[in-house]
Amino acid sequence: MKKAKTNFLNFYNFILVGLLSALGFSSSCGKIKPDPVAEYGVPSAKFTVNGTIQDKETNDPIENIKVSINQKKVAADAQGRYHITENGFGGEMTFNIQFRDEDGTANGEYNDLDTTIEFKNPHFEGGDGHWYEGEANKEFDIKLTPKK
Predict the structure, then answer these.
(1) Does a structural domain hold residue 35?
(2) Is residue 38 part of a domain?
(3) Which residue among 16, 33, 84, 107 has its CA within the 20 to 30 Å range from the CA of 50?
(4) Domain of residue 127, CATH code
(5) pTM
């Protein structure tokens, strides 16, 4: 009985190995693209924040306020508008953004503001279909409090 059981298991293993080998070879011999391209990298995207900076009490635009994300810094124009871009990984991103009044009393004195910008479920435009996902934009208007 033991010999019959061993023979049956050997036969069953032989059939199973044969079927799995046939399936493995048949699936690996599929049609290959003409020019396979190896791509290495990390998904990346450009994140842009636009907005206006206004006086909290008068709603007047404030110019020359320095806006910075990481090491990038821009100044608001005469209408209080700013535009700053930072690169990051694709997908959701969070950036710390600072608003600083560095010009002294030229346009009044305002308290600095540090805040966070979150790009949740961003909509990217202009990606290349590979590693560059494109550009995501966010509008972020703020009102600064004058120093007393």
Answers:
(1) no
(2) no
(3) 107
(4) 2.60.40.1120
(5) 0.69
The rounded Cα 34 to chain-centroid distance in angstroms is 32
Q: Are 46 and 134 in contact (CB under 8 A)?
A: yes
SS3 category, 95: strand
d(CA 134, CA 148): 43
Q: pLDDT tens digits, residue range 72-81?
A: 999 999 999 9
pLDDT of residue 20: 81
Instruction: Indicate whether 37 belongs to any domain.
Output: no
Residues 6+ away with beta carbon under 8 Å from 125:
134, 135, 136
Residue 106 CA to residue 108 CA, distance in Å, equals 6
Q: Please state the domain count of the chain.
A: 2
CB crowding 94-116: b at 16 or more within 10 Å, else e:
ebebebbbeeeeebeebeebeee
Domain that holds residue 90: 44-144
